[in-house]
Structure formats: C-alpha cells, structure tokens
C-alpha cells in the first residue's frame, strides 16, 4: 500500500517540533532565558520593517494612520517580501497594483516622499525575470498612467490629451525621469480636476452655475497658469494661490457688473474647459 496517507512517525513529529523551536531557541541566552528582546527583533527583521513602516507614515501623513499601516503591512505580505532569489516576479496586474499603491502613498506636494515612492514604483515595474529583461517599456508605463488617472474626476478628453503628451511608444525604454514626470503630471491633473469640480459646485450651489461666472473664473484660472517659468507642480500651486478668495471675488464681481441674463454652463463643460487649460501647459515628452 502507498505510504503517502500514513500518519507521521513520532520521530518525524519530533523533528518538525524541533524545527519550529529553532528560531526561538536561537534568540535565547545561554541560561535558557530570552537573551534580549531587541536582539530577537533585529534577528527577525522586525525592527527594520517597523522602522520603514513608520517612515512611510511620516512621509505620507495619512488622515487615518492605523488604516494606512494595516494596508501597508497587507501589501508587504502580498508582495512576497523575502521570496526566493531569482524567482519569477509576480504577474503584470500584481506589479501594476503594487506600483500604483506606491505612487499614491504620499501626496505629490511632499516632493522627497513622492519622488522616493515613484522610484520604488519604477523599480517594481522594471524588475526582470526568467522570461523578461529588466527595464520598463512604454506599454506598461502607459497602463500605469491610465490607472493613476482612472477612476477620477478628469474628463476623458483631458486624460487622452495628457497621455498623448507624456506617454512613450509601446516598445520604447522609459527612463526614470520620464516616468516620474508622467506620473506627476497625471497625479496633478487628477487633483486639478477635483478642485475645479469643487469650484463649480461653489459657483452653482445646488444647480447649474451662471455662464458669466464660469467664464470669469476660467479666465482667472488661465491667467494663473500662465507662469511658464515654474515647473509643473509649482505652477499648479502658484495658480491655487492666485485663485484665492480675493482673486476669485474680483473676477466674479467683474462678471456680475454687467447685470445681464446669462445662460448656464454645465458642470461637464466647465471641467472640460478647465482641464484643457491645464493640459495645454504640460510640456510633451521628447
């Protein structure tokens, strides 16, 4: 009879038990007592892991730190940290999901943390395997950019126009600086569209916004984005400063002075025009 279904022998049970006890025994001192909690944590790699997690919390400054840590450790387990050397990396969907998670760990205004996380995302997507050379091609890069934008408030036309400017050819190698620029552009567009939607809601209250007010705000927005000497994120922040309550109040006051009846502008039209202003300022990748 095949012995595959036999219960393990006492000797096998003892060997397995000793194997499980080995890590704990290694952390004990000569007298059988736990030699030192700190030493045990260092040997197990827990200290470095927790330190890295806390650094990520400080970098990202999330609204819910506990939930952030739970998600961080879950992703760490799913990423297969500590797997076999030389093993085939996880499939493309898993690597894309992990890279997207890295990209969204910190807000783009936290430049050092954001740049560090973007570099981790690039490394995650660039890893080679037995059937794949190391490096990132334009196809995977473009797919990540689409995931950064979607789902999101930016209109489809704006997303397509931006991707045409920052993406690479499918089989073209993507360097890190191009990768960082494209991810940053998509992240800023996503937030820009969200802010524009909130601005429209403030103009229209619970209904459609007056077209004159919308056009006045769009003109103010275009003027705020006109500073071409600043890099893209700084230009966006400068535009936000110029669109403060005082600047908006002046623009709206000028529009209301005409005291003429005006048609309404839909939310979709306002978002489309606002996003188009932003995309027009993004420099295409060479």
UniProtKB/TrEMBL annotation:
Q: Which residues form the RIIa domain?
A: 56-76
Q: Which SUPFAM superfamilies match?
A: Dimerization-anchoring domain of cAMP-dependent PK regulatory subunit
- Please give the name of this protein: TPGS1 polyglutamylase
Spell out the Gene3D superfamilies in the cross-references: cAMP-dependent protein kinase regulatory subunit, dimerization-anchoring domain
GO molecular function terms attached to this record? microtubule binding
Domain Tubulin polyglutamylase complex subunit 1-like C-terminal: residue ranges: 94-283
Annotated region Disordered: where? 1-31
Question: What gene is this protein translated from?
Answer: Tpgs1
What superkingdom does the record give? Eukaryota
């Amino acid at each position: 009879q095949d012995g595959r279904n036999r219960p393990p022998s006492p000797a096998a049970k003892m060997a397995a038990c000793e194997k499980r006890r080995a890590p704990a025994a290694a952390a004990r001192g000569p007298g059988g007592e736990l030699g030192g909690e700190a030493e045990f944590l260092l040997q197990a790699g827990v200290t470095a892991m927790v330190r890295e997690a806390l650094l990520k919390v400080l970098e990202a400054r999330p609204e819910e730190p506990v939930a952030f840590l739970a998600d961080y450790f879950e992703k760490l387990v799913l990423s297969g940290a500590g797997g076999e050397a030389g093993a085939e990396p996880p499939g493309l969907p898993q690597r894309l999901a992990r890279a997207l998670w890295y990209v969204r760990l910190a807000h783009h205004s936290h430049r050092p943390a954001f740049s560090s996380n973007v570099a981790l995302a690039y490394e995650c997507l660039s890893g080679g395997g037995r059937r794949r050379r190391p490096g990132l091609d334009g196809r995977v890069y473009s797919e990540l950019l689409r995931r950064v934008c979607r789902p999101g408030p930016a209109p489809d036309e704006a997303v397509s126009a931006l991707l045409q400017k920052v993406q690479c050819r499918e089989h073209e190698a993507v360097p890190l600086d191009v990768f960082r620029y494209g991810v940053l552009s998509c992240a800023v567009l996503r937030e820009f569209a969200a802010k524009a939607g909130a601005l429209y809601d403030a103009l229209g209250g619970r209904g459609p916004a007056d077209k004159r007010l919308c056009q006045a705000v769009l003109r103010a927005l275009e003027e705020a984005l006109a500073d071409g000497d600043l890099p893209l994120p700084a230009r966006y922040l400068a535009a936000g400063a110029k669109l403060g309550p005082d600047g908006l109040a002046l623009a709206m006051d000028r529009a209301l002075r005409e005291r003429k009846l005006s048609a309404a502008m839909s939310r979709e039209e306002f978002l489309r025009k606002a996003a188009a202003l932003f995309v027009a300022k993004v420099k295409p990748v060479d």
